Amino acid sequence: MDTETAFFETPPQLVAVGQPLSRVDGRAKVTGAAKYSAEYNHLPGLVHAVVKTSDVAKGRVTSIDASAAQREPGVLAILTHQNLPKPAKTAETKEGQEAIGMAVQMTFMPLQSDQVFYAGQPVAIVVADTLEHAQHAAAKLRVTVTPEAPVASYQDPKAKLFNPGGKPDADAEGTKRRGKAAAAFAAAPAQVTATYTHATNHHNPMEPSATIAHWEAADRLTVYDATQGVSWQQRALSGYLGLPQDQVRVITKYLGGGFGCKGPIWPHSVLTVLTAKAVGRPVKLVLTRPQMFTSVGHREDQEQTLRLGATKEGKLLALLHEKTSTTSQWDDYAESNSKMMGMLYQCPAFEATTKLARANVMTPTWMRAPGEAPGSFALESSMDDLAYQLGIDPVQIRLRNYADKDPSTGKPWSSKSLKECYERGAELFGWSKRNPKNGLTRDGKYLVGWGMATATYPVNNSQGNARVRLYADGHAVVQVAATDLGTGTYTVITQVAADCLGLAPDKVRFELGDSVLPTTNISGGSMGAGTFASSVYTAAQDLWQKLTKMAVMDAKSPLFRAKPADVAVVKGRLQLKANPSKGEEFAALMKRGNMTDVEGFGQGKYGAGYETGLATGPAKSDDAGKEDGGGHAMHAFGAHFCEVRVDPELGTIRVTKWVSVVAGGRILNPKTARSQVIGGATMGIGAALMEQTVRDPNLARYTNANLADYHVPVNADIPDLTVEFIDEHDPYVNALGVKGIGEIAIVGTAAAVGNAIFHATGRRLRDLPMTPNKVLAAMSQPV
Amino acid sequence: MNNFSYTQATAAKEATGRLKDQPQAAYIAGGTTLLDMMKANLTEPPQLVDINLLPFKGIEQTKDGLRIGAMERMNAVGENPLVKSQYPAVSESLLLAASPQLRNMASIGGNILQRTRCGYFRDEAFPCNKRVPGSGCPALTGDNHNLAVLGVSDTCIANAYPGDLSVVLAALDAVLTLENAKGKQRQVPVTEFYLLPGKTPEKENVLEPGELIVAVTIPAAAHAQRSTYLKVRERSSYAYALASAAVGLDVQGGTIRSARVALGGVGAQPWRSREAEKALVGQPATEATFKAAAAAALQGAQPRKENAYKVELAQNTLVRALQQVAGV
Ligand SMILES: Cc1cc2nc3c(=O)[nH]c(=O)nc-3n(C[C@H](O)[C@H](O)[C@H](O)COP(=O)(O)OP(=O)(O)OC[C@H]3O[C@@H](n4cnc5c(N)ncnc54)[C@H](O)[C@@H]3O)c2cc1C
Ligand code: SF4
Q1: Portion of chain A with pLDDT greater than 70, in percent
Q2: Counting Cβ atoms within 10 Å, is residue A373 exposed (0-12), middle (13-18) or buried (19+)?
Q3: Which of A485, A528, A655, A686 is buried most deeply by CB count within 10 Å?
Q4: CA distance A323 to A371
Q5: Which GO molecular function, any one, fits this protein according to its record (chain A) (predicted)?
């Protein structure tokens, strides 16, 4: 705890931070007062757009018959590639990509030509005075696409595999080889070789993506968009439209979930803006649930082969990973499964390669722990295999390979409490009572098994700004162009701001979700809490420094002529560090100076922790080399423990007990943090047991693009989850020592389930999701 | 969704009359099947005739057995104490279906007439012989993992009825009361109500145009009282069956006196298995007997690539259901 004093320059009074404050936006949400992006219905002359999409996955638009649709009441426009206004730039060129920025995920923009590359690709937009009129007219519109034979996936016999970047055996994205992995594997006394597959998954947040575009002048645009990042979206739209960024405003006050699919900019947002330009009125577009399967990316269908070589004692000697997955016609997207494989365990030799196949699908995208989630399924299942093969307890084998430094970079960890996670998880779960042999525990018809797996997620590169305005009357407004996906950002940043300002949380109004506020990163990559909190902290520092300067120059202040460095701020009182009785409240100082308010501005930066000396003020140019937290590797860690009951005759699997222990740096609010872990584990159990989008192998169109047939877990699938956090202080990751916990809980989850199934049945399931048909097939095989 | 007009009927005659005048019109009860299909442009009735006010109500024991009005809601029937105690499989099949919200809306008549969940049928972008006769059946070589293996044809392999209740109704010899535009009523056993796809998968049942389902009657019997419905699915609730079994047994002194068996999820229609019943009656209530019955039930199955597992799963499901009812 002695790091605490260094933590806030003004000594911390962590009153609100760390408390299980209920959501400050909870009331607005349950009463319906919270306004989501599709709910700005007051805009003058607002009209409705409906997207007409292609039935077929490949072909050309050969005819458009709009005559019947035109005649429908209320129809204002029917826009196709022939008459939709063109964007100034698209991401298809390098120059366009630079202008559009980080938010672009799919470089292709539909409705620019007659070509169709995927089922569900927009081929027309119908605008009408009401949604119903637009829908009806869209149904009457005939767009004929002359079909050609599509490629459905990497498994399609027509698919051609290639190495992204054109380099044969190139390292997989984000990983570097080390040692001579193939030779080390060949010589290893213990070996595990296994292939894993992962079905296509879709994010399916509750709130479908929605955009309202309002051109307030010919060159000034406001967009209400369901996005995880208003600053990114602002930059992207300015790039597409060729407008300066200040002429584009993006607003997202509330978001009904995202899981990654609302991180990038997708065509529907741009098309809505172009449509609004064409009709000269504000236009609203809300994607339908089926369209959510073909408009905002997905986790790609993939196959990975992992080879582990180890000593007889279970020490890893070699790790070789190969991944094959499906991508779109234009983009070489593959989530980097191997990044976590290279850093999780001590292992001298490592190699990872990626192969892609172009298919007639849209570009995949980040989905909660992109790479780490499927990667950990392979690694943590294979580690379990190795443990059984060598007769070592699964927790023990992980401890034997515990990495005291990051094996992929050789850097020391900024902090790592994985051992504590294993220990506490095992204790909470009762792991010591585990039967070391599999297939031996029965409960009536059921086979009962226990499994565990490691979780890890990086602290990703991120920075962003904040503004804090403190009023003399003891209220404050705090502003960041952040978004709250429903995760609790409103709440935790209110807590942070309250403590930074020495105020009660109800005296602080935290504003987010508007690109006119200080620019920041997206809420994604588990970066939000750390970035926003650190920027608010540095903004408060800036504000206190201003007030301190004022005080020491004010002849009427008890602090007159003190050195600013000798002054501390304690709960809003400026006082001498050496003599706390000498000082005054900020309100007194401000009133004397006739100030109604004072503002501070700050930048939060990844790697700018209090030990790296970067915690105060905006980053300077000489900080560049310290971006990684003074040469540290920064990751959150965790462990999952799982019990399943398998019905060997009916093939059903129930998760009946679950423990997750996570070490994620400072936990700003244990209640919202716990919900994040519950959500992550639940999503992971979904991927493990039921989630899959099925693409027809011949027509390359999804057959279950709805929530009745795309199964996500229901309450009955999820037991009471036990979630705990390890108290962890990280002086490097960022000013508040927050690692972020949005994604870590899905990592390792599928493996924990699979490992428990193996313990229960003696059968290893390597094909996600582990549905009853696969359980039956496995049960018919000898152990 | 198309534009449509909407009228409410308070008497059967009024409802059937509307459909006589406008054969393209559709009855709407709870709307949980119909509206989904309309929103997906799979059916475009110009007129909806609301039949929720028709007096097809009541859950009562009659001399012919349990009579359930077609307008009763799934939840009301599933929770009814008489149904629970005397016809447990009926209650179980209803309460294991859909979600509480849907069950509060959905009617018994509508349940019997629900449509297949075949993904190709449910998306107008695909060809589908059932929806557009002659357009082809992509499911044959595509996603058929939850389609049927019994009673299928090369034209269609869908489980035309994907739900639960009718599986129990088929097992327990239930009889539907139907009424046509002339006000004439007829009785049709559930086992004769549904049609196999053959070359005309678009024709799913014997209902005449405009004919209404008035009620369903389930004969009282020892095997009805000792009955169960077992449903296997990909998540614990709110999912259609991969395979299900409705069974009723009358076991005396360890010997099976009468047996009723139907399977769900695996048949082109709710699959009554008289073969299985034959293998059970007169035999000792043992696992060996149940396995023989299960094998008999799946004789003649025509599995495809993705649904081959159902042959084994359906047998195991049936064996388990029989064990549960027999208490062995
Ligand atoms: C997400 C989802 C999950 C589901 N899961 C299950 C499940 O697990 N198990 C299950 O069994 N079912 C399930 N269902 C189906 C549900 O049970 C049916 O949708 C419901 O029973 C239909 O009843 P309804 O009154 O809403 O019918 P409606 O939609 O009103 O009508 C359906 C059809 O029947 C006709 N019709 C209705 N009543 C009569 C009548 N008396 N006479 C003549 N024609 C009539 C209508 O014209 C229409 O064509 C599910 C449905 C959904 C949407
Ligand atoms: S199985 Fe039947 S319902 Fe499904 S696509 Fe084929 S014809 Fe249509």
Answers
A1: 96
A2: buried
A3: A528
A4: 11
A5: iron ion binding
Q: CA of A694: how far to CAs of A333, A595, A687, B146, in Å?
A: 20, 63, 14, 12
**Tokens at B189, concatenated:** 């056993």
C-alpha distances in Å from residue A80, one per residue of A77, A118, A119, A572, B131 = 10, 16, 16, 59, 29
Whichever domain contains B276, its CATH number is 3.30.390.50
- Strand ranges of the sheet holding A47-53, from the earlier edge strand across to the other edge: A75-79, A122-128, A47-53, A283-286, A210-217, A220-225, A248-251
Q: Which chain B residues contact residue A694 at CB under 8 A?
A: 119, 143, 145
Task: Give chain A's length.
Answer: 783
Total domains present in chain B: 2
In terms of CA atoms, which chain B residue is nearest residue A140? B2
Contacts of A319 (CB under 8 A, 6+ apart): A181, A306, A307, A308, A309, A341, A342, A345, A347, A349, A350, A351, A379
Structural domains in chain A, CATH included, are: 2-34+461-606 (3.30.365.10), 37-149+203-292 (3.30.365.10), 368-459+630-779 (3.30.365.10)
Which is it for the CA torsion A647, A651, A656, A661, positive or negative?
positive
Q: Would B68 be classed as within a structural domain?
A: no
CATH number at residue B15: 3.30.43.10
Q: Which has more pLDDT, A11 or A53?
A: A53
pLDDT digits (tens, 9 = 90+) for A262-285: 999 999 999 999 999 999 999 999
Segment A527-538 shows an average pLDDT of 95
Sign of the CA dihedral with B281 first, then B284, B286, and B289 last: negative
Active site amino acids of A: 743
Report the distance separating Cα A672 and Cα A675, nearest Å. 5
Angle between helix A528-553 and A489-501 (nearest 10)? 20
For A410, counting Cβ atoms within 10 Å of its Cβ (0-12 exposed, 13-18 middle, 19+ buried), the class is exposed
Task: Assess if residue B278 is contained within a domain.
Answer: yes
**Which residue in B34, B16, B219, B24 sits closest to B115, CA to CA?**
B34
Domain assignment of residue B273, given as a range:
223-326
Residue ranges in chain B modelled with pLDDT below 50: none
> Does residue B150 sit within a domain?
no
Interface contact flag, A445 B239, Cβ < 8 Å: no
In degrees, rounded to 5, the angle at the alpha carbon of residue B90 between the alpha carbons of residues B159 and B187 is 75
* CB-based pocket (< 6 A), ligand 1: A 708; B 26-34, 36, 51, 70, 74, 97-98, 102, 105-107, 109-111, 113-114, 163-165, 212-213, 240
B310: in domain: yes
Closest to B146 measured CA to CA, from B78, B80, B240, B237: B240
Amino acid at A729: H
User: DSSP class of residue A150?
Assistant: P
Lowest mean pLDDT among A20-24, A42-46, A630-634: A630-634
Over A631-678, what HEC string results?
CCECEEEEEEEEEEEECCCCCCEEEEEEEEEEECECCCCHHHHHHHHH
Ligand 1 atom 11: residue of nearest CA: B163
**Ligand 2 pocket member B56 (CB < 6 A):** no
- The b/e string for A562-580 (b: 16+ C-beta within 10 A; e otherwise) is beeeebbbeebbbbbeeee
pLDDT, one tens digit per residue, over A678-735 is: 999 999 999 999 999 999 999 999 999 999 999 999 999 999 999 999 999 999 999 9
The mean pLDDT of A664-687, rounded to a whole number, is 98
CA angle A124, A128, A132 (to 5 degrees): 100
CA-CA distance, A553 to A561, in Å (whole number)? 6
Domain stop point among B35, B54, B73: B54
ipTM of the modeled complex: 0.97
Encode A61-101 in three state secondary structure: EEEEECHHHHHCCCEEEEECCCCCCCCCCCCCCHHHHHHHH
B150 secondary structure, DSSP code: B
